[in-house]
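Write out the 3D structure for:
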Amino acid sequence: MEMLFGGLTASLMLGLSFGASACLISCMPTLGVAAMTQQGSSSSIGLAWRFNSGRWLGYSLLGLISGGVGVKITDGLNSQHAGWVLGGLLMLAGLLLWRRSKISACGKHGKKQDDVFRGSIFGMGLGMSLTPCIPLAGVCVAAAASGSMWAGWLLGAAFGLGAVLPAQLLLGYGLNSAGAQFRAQLTRKAPQISRLGGTILLITGAGVMSGLIRL
């Protein structure tokens, strides 16, 4: 039990250090751009929660599988395939932002478009968690060594919690507070902002799919 507690603490701290550095930078052209296109504080914070929930779920599942099979599951992850998935979801979100700028957000059709966009954001977070990195590989090694799905899940969940906290605080709540006045001044420019955000996501997604950009 003491070893598991020590492993959970180490995983959490590793996640925090990773989440506050390289991972935070990777989230800026994805979550940061998408959050700035939202109108209202609740929608941008909720968007950040969906994105980070997808990331947390992915890290937890990788820990669980590693613990269950006794093998570092990240060895089986193909970074190119992960890039295709993540890039495709980024481009889908970009296209949805472009489409939303052309239609009314009112009524059943607008609500359906928003639901699909929110789902793509969750998928973006999940896809990002499947991108191999050294800190995640270390957690999966510890999970595999535990030989337990339960312990592996806990290690992955602890790492995921640490990794998503900085992005949620800084890009969710922090960016929302900083962008509230910005959004209020540019409410009439909402379609243009959606198109700009969509363009950035499309370019980023194409770069990730082609391997020119690594998140």
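The two ends are 35 Å apart (CA to CA).
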